[in-house]
Amino acid sequence: MIVGPFMAVVDESRESGLESAPQYINRDVSWLEFNARVLEEAEDESNPLLERVKFLSIFSSNLDEFMMVRVSGIRSLVFHEAHAMEETPDRSAPRDLFDRIHDRIHQLVDRQYACLQQAVLPTIAGHGIRLRDPDELSKAQQQHVEEHFEQTVFPVLTPMAIDPSHPTPQLQNRGLYLAAMIQPFQRRRGGPKRLLAVVQIPAVLPRLVPLPGDDDDFILLDRLVASRLDRLFGGSEIVCWTTIRITRDADLDIDGDEVMHDLSQAIEEGLKALKHRNPVRLEVSAGADQKLVDTLAEQLQLEQREIYHVDGPLDLTILMAWHGLPAYEHLRDAPFTPRRPAELPEGADVFAAVRKRDILVHHPYESFGCVVDFLEQAAADPNVLAIKQTLYRSGSESPIVRALMNAAEAGKNVTAVVELKARFDERTNVGWARQMEQAGVHVVFGFLDLKTHCKITLVVRQEGSRLRRYVHLGTGNYNSATAKIYTDLGLFTSRQKFGDDATALFNMLTGYSLGHQWKRLIIAPHDLQPKTIDLIRRETEKAVSGQPARIFAKLNSLVDGQVIDALYEASQAGVEVDLLCRGSCCLVPGVPGLSENIRVRSIIDRFLEHSRIYIFGTGDEAEIYLSSADWMPRNFRRRVEAMFPILEPSLKARIVDSIVPILLGDNVKARVMQPDGSYIHSTPENGAPPLRAQMQLLDEHSVSESEDAGA
Length: 711
Prior knowledge:
This protein is of the alpha/beta class. The protein has 20 helices and 29 strands. The strands form 5 sheets. Strands 16, 20, 21, 22, 23, 25, 26, 27, 28 and 29 form a 10-stranded mixed beta sheet that branches. Strands 12, 13, 14, 15, 17, 18, 19 and 24 form an 8-stranded mixed beta sheet that branches. It has a 6-stranded mixed beta sheet with strand order 4-6-5-9-10-11, with helices on both faces.
C-alpha cells in the first residue's frame, strides 16, 4: 500500500461498498491542494503582476469559504459531536483531520504572505502602486489623511471598551477590527486596571484609501484608524493593539421539516442566525502581544492552532481592487473580446438558427451574449407563449432576470425556479425572487430537501398551427458576469425529445409530477449516479472482451466512492481513463494493480475550469454527455441535476477532436496528480512545443483587432 503525505489510510475490511479500493484521498485535504495550485499561480513570475495579485486574492476568498463551510463542519464533529458532514470515501478521524487541515493551512498562509511581502509588493511598488504606512506619508498625504479621517471615518467609528457593564460585542463574520488593551489614566473604583477594547473597521468605507501624488499610493483604512486610537479612547493609554479578523461557521442549514410556510422567510431568518454561529478562525497581525491574543482566544473559545498570525494586511481579497486600476494594462492579461458563435452572429434570429441544427457554445471563448439574446428575443417575440428557467447563481446584475420580468410584464407565462439555498447567494436570490414576483413571474423555490442545480431554459413558441419548444442546457450558471471568467458549455436545441424532457423536468420542479420516461435527459437524484456507473461498467465490459475502451471526464470534483470504485475496476480491466479534475479528487491514480490506467490532471489558469464533459467509448461509437453535476454524493443524491447527450455529429466531433485534445495537451498550466495525492507541473516532452490550453482556445475564438474595429 502506498501511503503519501496527503493520503488517508482506509480499513479495507469495512462493509460500505468501498472495500474494492484500499485507500482514498480525503476530500478536504485534496481541496487544500487545489488551493495550493491557485497559490502557485500567484507565485509564478511568468504571470503578469496584477494577475498574481488576483490569484492572491482568490486564494484568500477560497480559504474563507472553506473555513466557513468545511472546517466549521469538521470542528463541530470534534468539539460538539454534531453537524452532519457530506460523506467522503476515506475514514479520517475528525480530530486527526482537523489538526492536519490546520497544519496545512498554516503552511499555505505563510507561503501566501511570503509571496506578497517578498515578491509582489516590492515589484509592484516599482510600477507605482504602493501600500504606505502612516509614518511614510508626505506632509500633503498626512493632511489628506487627517481630513479624510475627521470628515468621513471618525463619525462612523464606535470604540467599545469591554468590562462587566459593557460585555463583549458580537464580532461579525469576516469583519475587520482593531483590538487593543487600554489602561485608563483614572481608574474607576473597583474597575479593572486594563480593559480589552475593540473598534470595527467600517465595511461601508473603502479599505484601500487612495493618497494624493503622482503614483497610486494607498493606505489601509485599518492602519489609518490605528494611528489615531488615542483619540478614540481618550483618557486611556493604548498599551498594545493589533488588527483582527474573525471567521465564523456560515453553513446555512435549512431543515425542510421545520419550514411550515415561506422558504424565503426561513432563508432570511437563517441568514440572521449565522451572525451568532461559532468562530472557526482568528486572524491577527504578526507581532501581536501574546497576552492580548490569549485574551481574544479565550473570549472566542478557540484553540491556538485556530489562530493565524499574519505578516501583512488581513484579508487579501481587498487587493482585487488593484487588478482593475486604469493605466496598468501591461500588468494584466491581454484583454479579449469573445467571438460570437458562427451560427448566432450579432442580431441573428436565435429561433431560426436553432431550428436548423443544434448549437454548442463554449464560454468564455464564445460570447454569453447569445444566451442573453435567446431570453430577450423570447421576451419580445409575440409568438412566444411561455418561458421557464432554473436560476441558481444569477448575479447581482442580471440581464437574464430582467428579460424574464420583461416577458412577464408583456403577458407571457413565465416561470422561474429559483434556488434560494445557493450558498452565499441566498440573499441575492431572495431579492430577485421578490422582484420577479412583483413583475408577474411565477416564482417557485423547488424542493425543500433538494437543491435545484440543473441549468435549463425552456421556451414555448407558436409557429403556425403547432407549438415548438426551444431548450438551452448548460454546465454553468445563467450569470453574465461569471460567464466571462468561467469555462462552460451550453447547448441550444429544438429536438422534440429534449423538449418533452424539459417540459417534464419543469413539471417535476413545480408540481412534483413523476412518472415521465426520460428520453434524453439523465436526472438526479434518481438516475444520474446509476447511469454514470452503468456507462463506466459498459467500458469495463468492452475492455474485458478485448474491445477498445476509454473514459474521459472533465469535472470540478470527484468524491463519490461508488464511482471511484467503478473507475478502479475499469482501470484493472484495461480501460484507459483520463480525468481533468480541477478541485478535490479522492481517487488515487497510477497505483499498480489498482489504478495504473488512470491519469488525473488539473488546469489552473486565467479562467476557472467549470464545464463538465463526460465521454464513454471511442470513435464514432463514443457517447458524449455534458452536465451540471460533478461526481459527488451531493450532486447524485441531494440535488436536481441534469446530464444531457450531444447528438449532432459535428458537435461531437468538435468536442472529441478539438476541445478535449487541447485540454489534455496542456503542458504549461496543467498539473499531474501523483499517487500520494500531490501534483507536479506538466512540462513539454521530447521537444514538444509549449501548449497552454486556455490561450490556444482564446486564439481560436477571440475577435481580432481588425474585426473588432469593423464591428
